[in-house]
Amino acid sequence: MTSPHSRTLPQRGQSLTDQVMNHVRHSVVTGEMEVGRLYSVYQLAEQLGISRSPVRDGLLRLEEAGLIEFSRNRGFRVIPTSPHDVAEIFSLRLALEVPAALRAAHASTPALAATFNDLEAHMRSAAERGSLDEFFDLDQQVHDTILSAAGSNRVRGIVNRLRDSTRLLGVSTAGKERSLTEILGEHAPVIEAINAGKGQEAAAAMREHLTRTGQLLVSQAITAQHLDLDPDELWRDYTTGY
Amino acid sequence: MTSPHSRTLPQRGQSLTDQVMNHVRHSVVTGEMEVGRLYSVYQLAEQLGISRSPVRDGLLRLEEAGLIEFSRNRGFRVIPTSPHDVAEIFSLRLALEVPAALRAAHASTPALAATFNDLEAHMRSAAERGSLDEFFDLDQQVHDTILSAAGSNRVRGIVNRLRDSTRLLGVSTAGKERSLTEILGEHAPVIEAINAGKGQEAAAAMREHLTRTGQLLVSQAITAQHLDLDPDELWRDYTTGY
DNA sequence: GCAGCCACAGTAGCATGTTACGTGCAATTG
DNA sequence: CAATTGCACGTAACATGCTACTGTGGCTGC
């Protein structure tokens, strides 16, 4: 059971700890692991055919990131992402990524523009094919590239961590292909403004994009969890000031 | 040495892992551990008289927080905090804490005001006694309380993690007692505005406070590391847009 | 029927053995 | 003398044994 059989494809550089983290993240978005249900380190280690150490290490890091929660002597569970959480996360992204777009515009280069155009083309392709996984992956890359161009390396890490918490909602409920081309359409002005070096416009476009996406996800979270909340009011509560 | 003797006092809540994290943090600010030098898990475990597991766990979490860095099969080292890092960190805090001050003002209550006044009194006392440790501890509590009142729980975690990275600079170089009363004087308007429910004023005062502190720390970092940089220019580079 | 007690199962946390790998050094060779 | 290769050492990463603790369900007594 714990022997190193076929599954042990080490996949260069990728430590078992990282693999565990990816496995859990992936299992959550695919629904393989239920939110709220208790799991144990023992169980997961056996399932993956590895020992408890890397499993424990990975889970500890996921706990640090706020994705899971340990219940003392009972196991761990995936923390449900409430509409409040979604609103808070997007208020954060507004605070961080809107200024980053402005800064990225000021640091615009031809090489950067080429990267953006490339990413945009791929996104269009993914959207037409309706490939959700790929689309969201590219979406993240666009945002990451912007943050990188803005020289905000710490923000990159923070935003990437926040993304984990929202993705399970995003992928599971955003089944509308219409949303994909819509989101794509929101990216264009951001990229265009950055490439043109127009900071204020880039910031405004980014704000628009994040606001739309955030409001959409908040609404989806509310309906998915059968809650009786006013999405607009909730959104306003959390984004006031940002 | 490694046998389960008297040291096995269960000690509520405080796990060995946490103790390790605190030890490393403390050792860094006191200069007991040199920035950039290689240390090993083995070494540290023996020094603390515990096994490698909790040491490793704690260091892994510190790595996640960005305080240390593992070099595969070589050991770990404390990551140096460059003036650029300081500037980036404060640009982040500006983006997060200024809106939080505004939100806190909107959520002001008498109980909150009492907490603030209490903290302020303690800070004054600490400043007069020149107790740096205590002062910075209280400073952090003030900021934490503001974030808490603003309902930004994720921001609390993020800011607290950022603080670790700047503290080693702050404590080791900010030896001037003048700075303490100065910082204290900057807190007053923030607290006052929050208690009065005046959001805009609270935000402006927080911006002022963070700007001053950040610029001071950037300058200190530059001189401490004997670099030839213009603090104002560096500061402007990182805080544009925030 | 209810409350308190107790025994049980499962878990987190810690200790320690094991393995494979990166690094620097020294010996060897062209 | 310089470059290359082989080797020894120290380390991270992983595996696994162990123990104390805690929440849970069944049992007993009232």
Characterise this structure.
Two copies of one chain form a homodimer. With 242 residues, chain A is mostly helical. Chain A has two domains: 70 residues, Winged helix-like DNA-binding domain superfamily/Winged helix DNA-binding domain (Arc Repressor Mutant, subunit A, Orthogonal Bundle); 157 residues, Four Helix Bundle (Hemerythrin (Met), subunit A) (Up-down Bundle), CATH 1.20.120. Helix content of chain A is 71%, strand content 3%. Chain A has ten helices and two strands, in the order αααββααααααα. Chain A has a two-stranded antiparallel ribbon. In chain A, a hairpin with a 3-residue loop joins strand 1 and strand 2. Chain A is globular, with a radius of gyration of 19 Å. The N terminus of chain A is likely disordered. Chain B binds a DNA duplex (30 and 30 nucleotides) through helix 3.
Descriptive tags:
homodimer; 242 residues; mainly alpha; Four Helix Bundle (Hemerythrin (Met), subunit A); 10 helices; 2 strands; globular; DNA-binding
